[in-house]
Amino acid sequence: MLDQEPIIRLSVFAAVLVAMAALEHAFPRRPQRLAWRRWPSNFGLVAVATVLLRLVAPAGAVGVALWAESRGLGLFPVLGVPWWVAAPAAVLLLDLLIYAQHRIFHAVPILWRLHRVHHADPELDASSGLRFHPVEILLSLAIKGLAVVALGAPPEAVLVFEVLLNATSLFNHANIAIPAWVDRPLRWVVVTPDMHRVHHSEIRAETDSDFGFCLSVWDRMFGTYVAEPAAGQLGMVIGVEGYREEAEQRIDRLLVQPLKG
Question: Can you tell me the distance from the alpha carbon of 219 to that of 55, in angstroms, rounded to the nearest whole number?
Answer without folding.
Answer: 35
